[in-house]
Amino acid sequence: MPKIQCTCGNMLRMGDIPCKIQYMFISDTDFDELQGAVDAEELYLKMKMFFQCDSCSRLWVYWNGFDNPPKEYAPAID
Ligand SMILES: [Zn+2]
């Protein structure tokens, strides 16, 4: 598991199980390939992950697996 130091300086705790700042998501097209009752492991393998900084709420999205660096998304200022 890689480590992320957020732009705000916070070190994200990515290794916790379960991880409170980790979110899983799946595209509609990938989901559409699944049929009937779905095995949790099969679904897990299709999902992508992002981590939310618990200090500044930035999202770090792994669009292309852990071998590639995550994309940073910062919330707009109100
Ligand atoms: Zn942060």
Largest sheet: number of strands, sense, barrel closure: 4 strands, antiparallel
Q: What's the total helix number? A: 2
The residue-averaged pLDDT reads 93
Helical amount = 10-25%
The fraction of residues assigned to DSSP E strands is 15-25%
- Poorly predicted residue ranges: none
Counting DSSP E segments of at least 2 residues, the number of strands comes to 4
Find the structural class using helix and strand composition.
alpha+beta
| Shape call | elongated
Q: What is the N-to-C succession of helices and strands?
A: EHHEEE
Distance from first to last alpha carbon: 33 Å
List ligands, each type once: zinc ion
Q: Strand order of the main beta sheet, please?
A: 1-2-3-4
Overall radius of gyration: 14 Å
Keywords:
4 strands; four-stranded antiparallel beta sheet; 78 residues; alpha+beta
Summarize the structure.
The protein has 78 residues and is α+β, with helices and mostly antiparallel strands. The protein is built from two helices and four strands. 15% of the residues lie in helices and 21% in strands.
Which SSEs are present, and which pair or pack?
Layout: E1 22-25, H1 28-32, H2 40-46, E2 48-52, E3 59-62, E4 71-73
Antiparallel strand pairs: 1-2, 2-3, 3-4
The structure holds zinc ion (ZN).
Zinc ion is lined by residues 6, 8, 10, 53, 55-56, 58.
